[in-house]
Each structure stands twice: as structure tokens, then as C-alpha cells.
Amino acid sequence: MTNQVSEFPTERTFQYQHSLPPLPVPSLEGSLAKYLDAVRPFATEEEYQVTAAVVKRFGEGIGKDLHQKLLQRARTRRNWLEEWWLNAAYLEMRYPSQLNVNFGGPAPYLEHCWPPTEGVQLQRTSISMWHTLQYWDLLRTERLDPHKAGNVVLDMDQFRMLFCTCKIPGVTKDTIINYFKTESEGPCPSHVVVMCKGRFFSFDAVCDGHILTPPELLRQLTHVKQCCEGEPAGDGVAALTSEERTRWAKAREYLIGIDPANKTILEIIQSSLFVVSLDDAKPYATAENYTPVTREALTGDPTIRWGDKSYNSLSFADGTFGSNCDHAPYDAMVLVTHCYYVDQQLKATDGRWKGSETVRPMPLPEELVFTVDDRVRSDVAHAKQQYFETTQDLQVVCYAFTSFGKAAIKQRKLHPDTFIQLALQLAYYRQHGRLGSCYETAMTRRFYHGRTETMRPCTLEAQNWCHTMLLPAASAEAKRKALLLAFNKHNKLMAEAQNGKGFDRHLLGLYLIAKEEGLPMPDLFTDPLYSKSGGGGNFTLSTSLVGYTTVLGAVAPMVHHGYGFFYRIGDDRIVASCTAWKSSPETDAEALFQNLVSSLHEMLHLATTAQL
């Protein structure tokens, strides 16, 4: 995911979009066989036989019909899943999305040129904003090289969703609105929205065809800060975006109803390039302990971020940064790629601006003031209360494991991602005395508009290995053999998932056809092992490799008794964020991380002695 940027590119960012292959539909037999294999670790022999019979009936009966209908759908669409996935995974969900769907995370700049420092918030924000605007310009002019896996071109469509994009709440279903255009497609909004102390300001980031320089951006940010200093906080209308979706949709309708000018303000926020949040918090994170800034990114002040915006850039008073993004329009790799670009640019310039200090004459930021009444104030108060109650229940830890990283793992001829996934399985097994159903993100961007597939790391082979590791009598040789079998199985399943041969999205498609046609729900989806093994969004461990860059993110758990686990792998370190709900008596994110550390050491020792 390195950003290859060319001054005179031979390939344009979006040039291969029309030549990408369509998303394939896997074979029904293959998907059902993989599903049966995946539920096995969670079943007794008796339970497994019951499920095997259910699956057999499904495959010979209703499943066949549903599969044919799915094949028919795939004939008329280049991506049969795209619309369904967006609706089922994001837009139809009614729970508050800001905490349950959005991802947030710390910016890596504190590790090098920008350690926590007071008094530099606006100066640093102007520089990071300038680099972000350069990235927008790269996308506008299609100078960002298309991503590839080896020689295979990957879909770049999600990069259109980073800027000028917002989710709009609906009473039964949300929508996504996107104003981004490349230069060849036409004009694109170029204003940014700055939020400070519950108030909104907006200004154009382009003047006379040129992006504002850091000194010019600093002038605009300083004006915003001066307007808010010593003044009472604004009405905090942004907190409404953290509400349950239907409640927010109705509050929004009411807001527009009391004054048409409110609709204009909403449109300015929705169409803006991105939102900059000037936050008074001082998280004081370090390169070893990212917890404070990660927690703030996920659970910070709801009155100075727009929860439905595709990108909220968070600027803290101690000179550190973070982000909070709606997950519906794109997956984390888009933001990771962008943040890594900014990180590399800052590193190359030591976080300084070396250009002109001249500030051109231009309009000052305009304040956007919503017309509110007692009902709106009451809605805002309710939103804040439910948000704070929920965020106080979320345990967030984010640490760097610095004993070793990618280099040591690869030296032992093992795949670094698989290494961490198996370490996590062992950590969970040790802590909870059983295996946890686990979701790992597999990328399907080699297909047209491909996003993700589920890879299930909790295999029978992983279970056998965990069990062997905890057997006092097991020899090192037995542990190594079991480990290699688990590795091979994981790598095989991941490769299949990335090549469109996973089974979870296929089963979702069959489920949605039955639902859309008003058919009785097939037994396969009501069988207890379906949800026990993670089906229907019930994974105990919700995990994702954020990449091999300097950028990390975090998410809330998928289920109440579960964990959210994101990680990045550096040459000499592994940084992981882990979340859990405090109100669940079973889970403890701190303990899981410590168990992960033990597992990592044990595994490296096992792999090292195997080499001798």
C-alpha cells in the first residue's frame, strides 16, 4: 500500500476500473463444504451431525434454487454483492453507527517529528491539512498509481469516497452521498469544515486555483480558534450524528423543518472535503503506548466530529492527531494509504513547511450557525447522554510489542499475518478456556468494486494446535507439527477468500435472496451452530491486519462478549489495538493483550528451535 506518485504518470489512478473482472459466485458444493469445516471446532460430534444433515438438505433442496437465482443476478451485475453488502452491513443498521461502525485511530507522527508538544496544535494542523489537500489533488488529477498485488491490478473505486462523502440518515435506511469528481469529470467541492467547541466553520481550501499554503491555512484556523476562545460552547448539533439512526433521521427532518437555512448548512458539511476537529483533549500517547489517543479517536467529544463523514481529521491540543471515519463508504485501507502518505511526507520534511510565508488576501472562515429550539437542544442532550454512557463502557488498549516484528518472523519462513492470528487464537484459548469464533478481513479488490470477504482463522487445525500447546506432556516436535498444519490451513483459506472463493458472502447472498422473495428462512441460517460459529455477524473476535505501514486503527467489538482487534506489523514491532465492553463479565482487553505477548514469545521460540 505504498503510495507511488508520479509527476508524469504512465498509469492513471482509475484507468483500469472498467477492465477489472466481475466478482465470481463460488460453487454451492464448495461453499457448503467450507462452511461445515468452519463450524466443526464449535460443535460436539452430535451437534456436528445435526448440522451436517441440515447442510445436506439445504444443498439438495432450497439452496440449489437460491444459488441459481444468485447466478442469474450475477449475470446482470459486475458485482452481485456490492449493493447488498452496503445495505445489509451498513445502511439498514439502526444502532448508533459512530461507535459501533466507525473506525478511528492514532496518527503515527508522534513516533518521529511530532511528539506530544503543547502550543503547536494549529501550526501542525495547517501542515497536516496541506498534505491531505495534496493527496486530494493527486486523486483529482489521477496521479496516484493504481494499486497492484504483484502484477494484478486492484480496484481503486473506494478512493473516490475519501473526500466529499457523507452518510445521510434515513428513517428505515441510510444513503451515501458523494460529491467527489476527478478533474476530467468536472468541478469538485473544495471547502473544508472546521469544528471547535461545538461550533462549525467553513472556508475554501483553494484560492485562485491554488491550494492554500500552511501559513494561509494557519491564518484560517487561528481565526476559528480566536472566535471560540473564552466564548460559550456552541449548540453541539454534531452530537446528533452519534444517535440511533432512525432517531437521528427524525431529528434531522425536524432540524430542516424549523429553518430552511439548516438544510443549507447540512449540505455544506456533507459536501465538504473533510472535517477538521480542533479538540482541547491532551491524550499524551507514546510510541509504546498509543492507548490515550486511540481511545480519544474512538470515543472523543461528539460535538466536534461529524459521525457520518467519511473523514474526520482530529487535532488534539497536545499536538497529536487521530481520525474517525464512517466505515460504510470505504474500508480502512483507503485511510491507511492516505495517512501513510502524510506520514512519509512529514518524515521527509521533518514536519516543517519550507515554502513561502506569504498569506494572500482571502475571505475568513464563515461560521455555520444552526437555528435550534428547545426540542433540538433536548435531542442533542439525549444524544450526548447515550453516547457518553456507551463510550464509558468501552475498554480500549493500544500497545506496541517491541521484542520482534516482521523481520524475525519472515526469517523463520512464516507469514507474519498468520503468525499474529494464531497467536491471538492461543491468547484467547488460554484466557477463556475455549476457542473464539473469529473474523479476519480478506481483501477482494482484484475484482470490480470488490471490498472484503470473511476469512475464519478459528480452524480445526488452529484448535488442535492450541490444545497441544497447553498439554504439559506435549513434546516440542508435536507442537511444531501442529503449528505448521495450522499455518498451512490459514494461508490456504486466506488465498481462497482473496480469490473470490470464500463462503461467508456467498451464504449471505443466498440468505438475502430468500429474504427478498419472502421465502421461509432456510434451516441452515436458524441452526444454532450458524451463529455460534460467527455467522450473521456474531464473531467473538473481530480482527483485521491494518497493514505493514506505520498506521493503525481501532474498532468496537462485533458482539457484547467479544473483542475488536486491529494490528499493524512493522519490521521490529507489532502494534495492536484491542477493545472490549466493560459490562461484559467475560472479556478483558488488557488481559488479552498480555496473553498475546506470551503467545508471540512462545511461538517465536518454537519456530526458532525448529530451525536449529
Automatic annotation (TrEMBL):
Keywords: Acetylation, Acyltransferase, Fatty acid metabolism, Lipid metabolism, Peroxisome, Transferase, Transport
Catalyses which reaction(s): octanoyl-CoA + (R)-carnitine = O-octanoyl-(R)-carnitine + CoA; 4,8-dimethylnonanoyl-CoA + (R)-carnitine = O-4,8-dimethylnonanoyl-(R)-carnitine + CoA
One Pfam family linked to the record: Carn_acyltransf
Top-level taxon: Eukaryota
Tagged with keyword Zinc-finger: no
Localization: Peroxisome
GO molecular function, one term: carnitine O-octanoyltransferase activity
Organism: Oncorhynchus kisutch
Example GO BP: fatty acid beta-oxidation
Gene: CROT
GO cellular component, one term: peroxisome
Pathway where it operates: Lipid metabolism; fatty acid beta-oxidation
Major site of localization recorded for this protein: other
Presence of the UniProt keyword Lipid metabolism in the record: yes
Name by which UniProt lists this protein: Peroxisomal carnitine O-octanoyltransferase
Active site (catalytic residues): 327 (proton acceptor)
Top EC class for this record: transferase
EC number: 2.3.1.137
InterPro entries referenced in this protein's UniProt entry, alphabetically: Carn_acyl_trans, Carn_acyl_trans_N, CAT-like_dom_sf, Cho/carn_acyl_trans, Cho/carn_acyl_trans_2
Family: Belongs to the carnitine/choline acetyltransferase family.
Choline/carnitine acyltransferase domain ranges (all copies): 23-596
